[in-house]
Specification:
It contains nine helices and seven strands; from the N terminus they run βαβαβαβααβαβαααβ. The two termini are 34 Å apart. It is α/β, with parallel strands linked by helices and 254 residues long. Helix content is 41%, strand content 15%. The chain has a seven-stranded parallel sheet with strand order 3-2-1-4-5-6-7, with helices on both faces. Helix 1 runs parallel beside helix 2 and helix 4 runs parallel beside helix 6.
């Protein structure tokens, strides 16, 4: 299974300091990749750095808001200087909605979500593609979407719109950059136990309504995304592009 070995490869994970992003970054580091994680919370970055560095490879942890074009560009430049050009880029950083009714939603609220969840993905992938084209060895683009891209999310239209938008972006990128050996795929998580969802999962009414609809009868965990991250970053997925990989314990089927 040597195609799954990531020795010599560089992976970047935005939002890689906690939750699904850290679950993916940890598996990538364990598989041999040099990993750059980006996040806004320095304390979480420090803890994530220690966890990834324990695998013995190169790790870079950078504090950055992906909606800040100048700072994100600087982060990519630093990654290039210290680790080399990015081979796989996981655009995972995201912010949740506040549950505001659509007709009461302000433009500021709308843009707080889309500036990170949609614009941030654009800025991340644009920078990654530039490095991949310059290096001339192809690469893998992966975005973290959401079930809200497929199902109705009341009081979360801005979040759902951003997560649906990145699916369309991925399909277009898969077609446009295939000739350069760059593939693009989306991961679509179900109900995953992360710092973002923890308050919701502690709400007894919600848990009693949702858990019976999950055939596996458990919340997903960040580590459930490790294997698929390694697969998408590796040569094993060389002909896999333009896809949505649903990881929800069969919730959407039941």
């Amino acid at each position: 299974m040597t195609k799954f070995n990531l020795d010599g490869k560089v992976a970047m994970v935005t939002g890689g300091n906690s939750g699904i992003g850290l679950g993916m970054a940890d598996a990538l580091a364990e598989a041999g990749a040099s990993v750059c994680i980006i996040g806004r919370d320095q304390q979480k970055l420090d803890a994530a750095y220690d966890k990834l560095a324990a695998h013995g490879g190169k790790v870079l942890a950078l504090q950055c808001d992906v909606s800040d074009e100048q700072k994100l560009t600087a982060a990519f430049d630093q990654c290039l200087a210290e680790l080399g050009p990015v081979d796989s880029c996981f655009a995972n950083a995201g912010v949740p909605s506040r549950g505001t009714a659509f007709h009461e939603m302000t433009t500021t609220e709308w843009r707080e979500i889309t500036s990170v969840n949609l614009d941030g993905v654009f800025l991340t992938f644009r920078a990654a593609i530039k490095q991949m084209l310059e290096a001339g060895r192809g690469g893998s683009l992966v975005v973290t979407s959401s079930l809200s891209a497929h199902q109705g999310q009341p009081r979360g239209e801005h979040y759902a719109s951003s997560k649906g938008g990145v699916l369309s972006m991925i399909r277009s990128l898969a077609v446009e950059y295939a000739r350069y050996g760059i593939r693009a795929n989306a991961i679509v998580p179900g109900w995953i136990d992360t710092p973002m969802t923890a308050p919701l999962f502690r709400w007894e009414k919600f848990a009693k309504a949702v858990m019976p609809r999950i055939p596996q009868r458990r919340w997903g965990l960040p580590e459930d995304f490790g294997a698929v991250a390694v697969y998408l970053a590796s040569d094993a997925s060389a002909y896999h592009s333009g896809d949505d990989l649903l990881i929800d314990g069969a919730y959407s089927l039941f």
